[in-house]
Every structure is written in C-alpha cells, then in structure tokens.
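Record format v2
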Amino acid sequence: MATDSTNCDDVVVRAEHVVRRFGTKVAVADVSFTVNRQERFALIGHNGAGKSTLFRMMLSLLPPSAGTITLFGEPVTGRDDANQRAVRRMIGYLPEQVVLYDNLTAEETLRYFAELKGVVVDAHEIAERLDEVGLLRVAKQPVRGFSKGMRQRLGLAQALLGEPKLLFLDEPTSGLDPMGIRDFYQLVDRWQARGTTVVVSSHILAEIELRADRIAILAQGRLVSVGSVFELRQQAALPARLWVQARDASAVATLIASAERLGVTVDERTEMGVWFLWPSEKKERALAWLLEQREHWLDWAWRDATLEEVFFALALKEQTRQAEAEVA
Amino acid sequence: MNGAFLAIARKEFRDRVRSRWVWVVAIVFALFSLAIAFLGGAAQGAVGIRSVEAAIASLTSLAIFLVPLIALVLGYDAVVGERERGTLDLLLSLPIPKRAIVVGKFLGLGAALAAATGVGLGAAGIVLALRVGWSVWSIWAQFALGCILLGLDFLAIAIWLSTWARDRSRASGAAIAVWFALILVFDLILLAAMVGLGAHPAGRWLPWVMLLNPADLFRVWGLASIGNVQALRGVSELFPSVVAQQPFWLAVALLGWTVAPLALAIRRFRHDGKEL
C-alpha cells in the first residue's frame, strides 16, 4: 500500500486508511493521502479504479465503510448536519458530465446555485463569473441550447460561486476543445493563485502531467503511488528515451556500439537514427556521451517517461502484486 | 437554510409554468368540469346545468381518477430524475440540508398543482356562478380545495416513491401501481371484506379502514361539500359519520396523507446511500 506522508501544517484534505465497500465488492481499499493548501492534486486511474467513489466520499456524499476523511480538519461523515454543511460552504464542485437545468438561463442557473449556497450575489458578480468562463454573451439564453463544453464552463462558474477554498473537479475538461482546456486551466490557475486548493480527477493524463502539483494513482481501489510527476517517474524506474539523429548510415552503427558498451539498450533503429532506452537517473552521463560522440550525430532529443507510461508501469506493478497475493 | 427551501420551490414552480404544464392542466380541469356540468344530465335527455350539487357529485368521481394520476405523474421523478440527470450529487454537495430538497420540491410542485387546479376549477366555477348564481361559490371552492388536498396527498406519495426508486422507469411503474391499488383495487377489497365479514364484530372496524385511502377521504369530502352526506354512495356509505360530518377532521385526515408520505420521503432520503 502506498501512503502519502506529507507533513504540512496546511493540510486541507486528509484521507486515512479509507475503505468503501458496496456489498462484498471493495471499491476503495485502505487509501491514505493528504492534499495541502493551494495545491493542485490529481487523482488518476482506469474506469472502476475507485476515483469517483473517493471523490464522492470526500464530498460527503457517501460515508466511508472504514477509515476517516477530514476536510479543513473536520471529519467527513456523510451525515446531514450543520458541521458538514459548514464544510460544504467552503467547497466548490464540478461533477463529471454536468447537466444542469435546461429551463434555466445561464444567469438564472448561477442565481439558483448562489441562493442554494447562501451566497449573496448581485448582477455585477453574476456577469463577472459568466465573463470568466466566456459565457457572458449567452447569459440570457436557456441552458437547453448549450453545447457540452458550454455546460461544462457554466458548471465551473457555478463551482466558483462563494469563493470556495477547495475545488473538486471531476473529469473537468471532457467535452472541451483544446482552446477550451487551455482557458479552463488558466482560470483554475487564477483561483489557485488566490489560495484555492484544487482536487481534480481526469483520464487525460497528458493534461494532468503538465498541470498537477501532485498525483495519486489508483488501481483496483488501491492507492498505488502518490507524488509529483518527477517522484512518480523515479518510483516507476522507467528509462528515458534518447533520440540521436546520426550524421550518416554508418554513424548509426558506431553510436549503437558505443552506447551498448555503457549498458544502454536500443529501443528502435532507423536508417538515420536510433532511439535509446537510457536510465533516467543517468541523464548527465548521456550528455557526456553525446559530447564524446559529437562527430557522429546531427541532432538529439531527450524524452522522459510520460505520465501515461508511468501510470501503466505502476498500475501493472500493483496488479501483479495483487495477483501474487491472491495466489499466496 | 429557508432560502434553500424557497429557492428549490421557486425553481420547480417556474419550471412547470415555463413548460406550460400549469396551463395545460388548468385547461383540462376547466374543460372537464364544464363538460360534466353541462352534459351530466344528457343520459336523462337534459343538457345544461341542472345544479352545482349534481355537477360536484359527478365531478368527484372524475377527480378521483384524474387528480391522483396528474399528481403522481408530476412527482414521480422529483428525486430520481435529479439522480438520473446527475444533478443530485451537485445539490447534495451544497451546504443545504437534505430535507430542503424533498420539501422544496414538494412545495414547488405542490404550488404548481394547486395553481393548475385552482385556475382550472376557478374558471369553471365562474362560468357556473354566472349561470346559476354566486351563492354556489362557497360549495365550489370547498370542492376545489378538496381536489387540491387530494392532489397534494398523491404528490407526497409520488415524491416518497421517487426517493426509493433506482431509476425513473421503476418510479413511474411504482406510481402506476399505487394509482391502481388506491383508486381501483382498494374499494373492491373493502367491499369484498364487508360482504365476507357480514355481521362479524370485526366488520365494525371496516369504516375506519377507509381512512387508509386518501381517494376515499376525498370522495366523502366532495359529497360532504354539497351538504348531503346521506347521498354517499358505494363504499363511502361505510365512512365513519363522525369524520364525514366534520369537514375539519376530513381536512386533517387529508393533510395527514400529505405529511406522512413526505416525512417518510425525508427519512428515506436522509439515509439514502448509507446502507449500501
């Protein structure tokens, strides 16, 4: 079991040995992690990995079967009481595939949710929120005619009402085009800079790789690993890929022979170049080797293992571990 | 906190007005009322309004079929619909008590139902009053109030079902089953029991069993509103006279049928998900 032992006085979310069962099925098994103030924390995992269940427990929509989750130091119990409501007042939530209400206009939607949150908003603030998500020009139009991306942006505007200290974003960019994704994260950046903590789940790993401070990988309900992209790469111990474009065809063989003497393996060879699998911790040695071989190459590129590769490596490791445990 | 109740109620009411539901149902009520008032005596060869009392007696039977059906259709997806749309989690993540969702929905949908019933029967009442005189207005208003109370009873039942159902199709199935059981089957069972028990002492309790059905309560209310409890027909003759002759107790009994399912709905909704 991976645990996150970050020591920080500013812990906003703390999950300790959280378990959630549905009948005999264990959806979340002994998960522990913390999310720090103003951090962007991502939960990634395949379908059925337990992300949504964990999300729902953090949101107090579902009580854990065992273990505890605290938000701002207050235990999340799933009970319908004043303490839980006080915590929810500090939260903004954008659900996956937000539908909202077709009969309401964008403006009315925000007014409705502001009223439910007990937030007093004037016309200026409503306009400001809609402008932030690029929906000001359709403020008076009913949600019925909105595209998926527009609904998603309105959902985010709704989540930002009341200046939340903690934002839960569940698959927030599904339905957004690349421009929309960029704008979306720019807005989240602004709120994070104001002090908001962000917990995000996504299956678009390339997006998370660039934008999360720390990432938790879930597989089969277990927390496989947690850390920054750099830390996860180290845990996965995957080699980096070094592309070397040779000066000519004969130089390819020379480069391969030289690299193999260092224990480096070839991943892929073409007529004009070669992909090496280079131990990522030996980046400096790679630079030195490139300088030594300067007369044989025209260009080179270094590519660390992607989050997707790291995810598959760590998830596979967990799967194997579980299979072995079952056999034992 | 009160803001949440009212915000949900206002949204539900506005939704039904915008979708023209209120107006369609009001027109249905008005047309049916006038049609029955004018054509109620056609079988005897007389067309036109004979008396408001006769119209109410006929309308009571119609309302027993129509009002519960409309109320059940209105409320069956109140909670499960939000769940299926994916908006329920969003509502539950907000700093509002769970009961605000159930009660707010009931208030909003109940207001829409009351408005549709009031406008429809009110319009028909005006036409009748112009034909036979304004003295009938209070009788008609009492009848309309009974229709609203009956509607609220079945709306509360529908919302309760909605908190139980896993999806909208199951909720609609349950709503139809309730309508079938309370409107069609209940009286038949009661009649069978009455015949079967004969002079058995247990038969003395049968009249009180009618309190278990809001449709029967309304039937008595409708006929009592025309001031002729002796005219009670069918199983309604069984009805405890102490209740039948006291509109106040009838209203209390009808309101009880609103409060009890609503309380059960709140209880169910508060515990939803915990037993999984």
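Chain A touches chain B at residues 22-23, 56, 59-63, 78, 80, 85-86, 88-89, 91, 93, 95-101, 103-104, 112-113, 115-118, 158, 168 (CB under 8 Å).
The two ends of chain A are 17 Å apart (CA to CA).
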